[in-house]
Amino acid sequence: MVRIAAHQDTDGRLIRLGVAIRNKRKAAGLSQEALADAAGIDRSHMGKIERGERNLTLLNLCRIASATGLRPSELLKDADL
Amino acid sequence: MVRIAAHQDTDGRLIRLGVAIRNKRKAAGLSQEALADAAGIDRSHMGKIERGERNLTLLNLCRIASATGLRPSELLKDADL
Question: Which residues have a Cβ under 8 Å from the Cβ of B43 and sit 6 or more positions away?
Answer without folding.
Answer: B32, B33, B36, B37
